[in-house]
Amino acid sequence: MKNGAVSQAKEQHRLIHELYVLVDDGDRQVLAEQQLSPLEFAVLQQLDADNGQRLTDVGALLLCVKSTITRVMDRLERDGLVLRTQDRDDRRAQRVVLTAKGVYIRNEAVRLHAASVESRMAVLTPAEQRQFLALAGRLATGLRDGLHPDGNGYLHNEATLLELRSNGKEEELLLRQAS
Amino acid sequence: MKNGAVSQAKEQHRLIHELYVLVDDGDRQVLAEQQLSPLEFAVLQQLDADNGQRLTDVGALLLCVKSTITRVMDRLERDGLVLRTQDRDDRRAQRVVLTAKGVYIRNEAVRLHAASVESRMAVLTPAEQRQFLALAGRLATGLRDGLHPDGNGYLHNEATLLELRSNGKEEELLLRQAS
DNA sequence: TATTGTTATACTCTATAACTATA
DNA sequence: TATAGTTATAGAGTATAACAATA
User: Does the CB of B78 sit below 7 A from strand C?
Assistant: First the structure.
């Protein structure tokens, strides 16, 4: 801005970054008790003990490239939280399921994390939270639209997206994200 | 929450993460024109062509460990954007200054990035931005307080913090952050 | 031909720690 | 003793691409 004052837009940009750092830091502190990184936690939340999920689907949900998911699963399997099982219908694919230990750890992590989130976010009153959600939601929607004005270039992490898009699954993905 | 509905707190948590991803992605797209990573951009903004800055001070400002700063500077120096010069008063220290090319690149990046931020954030009206800033600011303050309830454990990235704290510079750092 | 998952390479950033040369 | 900066190692995460097995 002209007069040396910091613009609202810039301040908004700074605050979004700061909020993320603070929230992420709190998450890591909580998840450290289960020895989980945020990504591992996110992966565990996509799995169950019965059907499981294919690696590719997990990657699509979390916007991760295949190789990243492979190695996260390697760690989780090494630690005994998940198991790779053959997919019956598609012999190329594997379904990853939670072990008993995995179920336990995931449930503990989910419980502790949820409680932590509730308490941390309680800095704002319920009414303020509603306001914040409305504004942040509109901002997120606007930013998402702005990133692909000409129909391409959705996210910087595009490998998975491109695969999905070429597969006609983009709407499906956006739905999942919005859910 | 009990009935399967997602709590406001959880939704807030999710939105903060999503906002960050979207903003960061936009940043990377803009900065890619100058071949800068977000961290390199942040470092350049702390430097000038005259006095320069000591590596340690840059690290403290950006909450980075010494070794990270060393290697960012290596890259920037390799690309001809900065120069390491001896500090006259302290022969252990080096002052990093911008080269002519560095000044040009930094100014270009600052200009383009600022314009991009203004246009991206314009999704919200000025009035909405004021509301968002007020709420996000309160939330950030609350989160920051919550992270060190007993006086320690400020941020997960603590290496620099610990050094500063043992040095009695914590207040100074907090002031810098808040500015 | 396209997809699933693995492997390999390279790069950014983080964390830790050993090391030097100064202070 | 403590500090400034470098170097080394290890890890998480990203991006890209080659590859084998299968569809």
Answer: no
